[in-house]
């Protein structure tokens, strides 16, 4: 019986065959032809046509585009943009600090601190930020004089437009950040805290050195979104006489009667600011995702090169 693992002489190719003479040629390399996605081309043409129609409509509208260009870098507009950045950054810092404090308080086993944190989040998340700004702005109607014992002054002198904007935006942001931080803390496995306590670390040190650094991966992405949202929400402080970007544009428009032009200028600056911070948010998220992803997602520039590769590479087959 022939062993199935060994060839017999009958299984060998004949000596005078093509294989035996060494004339065997391997098969040609397979050329992969990319599938034509006609739907992508059709949808792309439709979108470009719609954008062109929109641009043409604006070009035919009664808008003095020269005025828009002249006001982009107007001193009053630039100063208002600076105040928008200032109030947004300071309010976000207040929100971050309050968010961490009230998130820890809510997760505390102390029922009093937990209840106080819940009430704070419930009130400031449940009422519109515009209403909160008006409450701070009209606080002198309830308390004409601010008397803290060591400090006494008229409430109208204390509640300046800047202070109203800072308190209104900062306290409101703190409520949202408390929920974001709480979600990040709860995403860390409890075994991390148990191991830290077993090593003799206190609860406070465990939170600072072990839990919060690991929670940053969950906290950072929504925090970036909150800041971009806060940057746009800061336009509401124009209602309390704080001269930020929108208020500066409205003041110029009311005197020059270029209302639409100044609003377009404000929109351009808001788009520019949110675009810059969106790029920063992307790279911060990418940095904190290094320990959780096997492969980092491609950067925007890498995506552009990948999408352009079919157009600049070999169209007839797979590029080597």
Please summarize the sheet with the most strands.
2 strands, antiparallel
Radius of gyration: 32 Å
The sequence of SSEs as H and E is HHHHHEEHHHHHHH
Cross-sheet strand order for the largest sheet: 1-2
Question: What is the molecular shape?
Answer: flat
Mean pLDDT: 83
Strand content: under 5%
Poorly predicted spans: 314-320
Number of helices: 12
Report the strand count: 2
In whole angstroms, the N-to-C terminal distance is 49 Å
Structural class: mainly alpha
Q: Helical residue percent? A: 55-70%
What does it look like?
The chain has 320 residues and is mainly α. The protein contains twelve helices and two strands. It has helices at 38-60, 65-71, 75-107, 111-126, 129-137, 155-158, 161-186, 190-198, 203-233, 245-256, 259-288, 300-312; strands at 145-147, 152-154. A two-stranded antiparallel ribbon has the order 1-2. The longest helix is centred in the N-terminal third of the chain and has 33 residues, at 75-107. The radius of gyration is 32 Å and the shape is flat.
Notable traits:
disordered C terminus, 320 residues, mainly alpha, 2% strand
